[in-house]
Amino acid sequence: MLMTRSLLPLLGLLAVLLSACDSAGNADGTTINVHLENANGLSANLDRITIAGEQEMLRNTPIDDGGHFSFSFAEPLSDGLYQIRVGAQKATLALDDADGTVEIEGKLSTFGNYDFSVTGSADAAETVTTMNRIQEVAGLDEFQEMIGAVNNDYTAAYVAFRALQRAGEAGLPVHEAVVQRLPEGDPSRDNYNRYLEQLKQQIAFAKSQELIQPGQPAPDLVLQNPEGEKVVLSDLRGQVVLLDFWAAWCGPCRRENPNVVKVYNKYKDQGFTIYSVSLDGIDDNQAARLTPEQLEVARDNQRQKWVAAIEQDGLIWENHGSELKRWSGEASAKYGVRGIPATFLIDREGKIAEIGLRGAASIERALQRVL
Fold first, then answer.
1. CATH topology of domain 216-368
2. How many other β-carbons are positioned within 10 Å of the β-carbon of residue 178?
3. Range 27-211: architecture per CATH
4. What is the pTM of this model?
């Protein structure tokens, strides 16, 4: 009985402590308290998002008559980007797993413009400050300096991605710098890298529209043959080369191959050769849905189909190359190829002589002029 009485003060103190923890929402978790004027009667969503990728809704909650709402989690939210959505207004913030209770105060009408205050999270507050500073930056150099000074890697990457959508090639150094700051294997890093690959292809294609003209130097290509050895287009300088884009899966290409073979057999001893670029393989969108092991198997299957088509169609020249990335490769972007078959006749000096030759007679006439 005496022992029970002696425990009563301790139990009472424990109850008080537990009650205090409960009233604050779990002391070890994350709570986001928001007050937005004129948001009463609406609902709010909290999403976890990735840069250049998908979003996952974590919570949905009603907003009370005073414009207050909260998102509470028993466990800390992991480092990353989170988006709060209220009606048509939304704002993205970086959070740290050490953030406990985050307080946001603002108005619904200006929430999407990052006109609100944040306390309880240095990273979220930095996101707001950085988004507001974009309007004051005078040029790309100043923007790069600003981004370099941002502490949170997710904020730096998110702001760069948002702000440089139309910067084109000039923005590449900034993009490449911020994506390297993201953790290896992070979905935002993977998505950002895929975006950069697509951006580089778009830039290469735009350049190709200016560069791929008769009389212009032919851009060099360094690809791998089916055995994994390098085949370099510029190594053929001194010969007349038919650069031929095709694929095993392309019906028109396979029907055109006998014409190409006919011309090759007739002129191969007169300084003429062929450099074939296969667009077989797995593109970036398909690759993103596969594990590394599955991707390796899929690309090997495509390689085997490529080899089989070479043998079946009698493409006996040595120069066969591919990135095994279908339309996601750099070779097609360099030459502005949007459809196959596509051919480019290159003279002995490495300059483009003719474009878009189809049929044995057409290839032969152009070849005779160049030879």
1. Glutaredoxin (3.40.30)
2. 26
3. Sandwich (2.60)
4. 0.64
